[in-house]
Amino acid sequence: MKIGLLQAGHLADTIVETHGDYDRLYPELLKNQGFVFASYPVVDGVFPDGPGAADGWLISGSRHGAYEDHDWIPPLEHLIRNIRDSGVPLVGICFGHQIIAQALGGRVEKFDGGWAIGPTDYAEDDNTLTLNAWHQDQVTRRPDGARVTASNAFCENAMLTYGDRIWTIQAHPEFENNFIHDLMEARGRGIVPDPILDAAEARLAEPIDNDTIAQRIGAFFRGARTS
């Protein structure tokens, strides 16, 4: 099964040297599930021909805001709507979660409550998921038809589903704890308040649920769709 990665940003050079860019992180997250990946760096203006170029689509994280004025944002939103209309499965992570909501009629804003950084707990029915977060922007108004499937007091719309075709998450299941440590050193200090970084650092020895989400993403891509 071919997964098209719509790469909406690049990681800092110091992070890429150690961990690779998004086009390495997502194949690593979903390894051993039978997927092949084709990367389209939409942030650089490189787009696929259309929804039929892959069997499923994944929109990456990004340092950019979905509401910012970039030439590649409108065509990405247009592509999102075409993917939705085509019925091809679509997954969005962090920025991907946000831009899908915005393209489908929701609102994304810089959240007044500040930052979510590092291991973060999300309520999902009777379960708790712990995943690494790195964001200040969030979806503040859901599009029509979007259903919340995980949330917390800081981020109400932390995981959204749109029927059986679109599944999005605000957290970063592709970020391991050592990645968050290095990201805090590369981009955190002087940008994110120190108490938030210190609290995140204190949790980096805790287990996170990346493997659980990786299996869910794989199952979502392979799942049968209703007409």
TrEMBL record:
Residue ranges occupied by any Glutamine amidotransferase domain in the UniProt entry: 73-176
PROSITE patterns, per the entry: GATASE_TYPE_1 (PS51273)
Domain of life of the source: Bacteria
Key words, A-Z: Glutamine amidotransferase
Matches recorded under SUPFAM superfamilies: Class I glutamine amidotransferase-like
InterPro entries membership: ChyE-like (IPR044992), Class_I_gatase-like (IPR029062), GATASE (IPR017926)
Name this polypeptide is given: Type 1 glutamine amidotransferase
Lineage: Bacteria, Pseudomonadati, Pseudomonadota, Alphaproteobacteria, Rhodobacterales
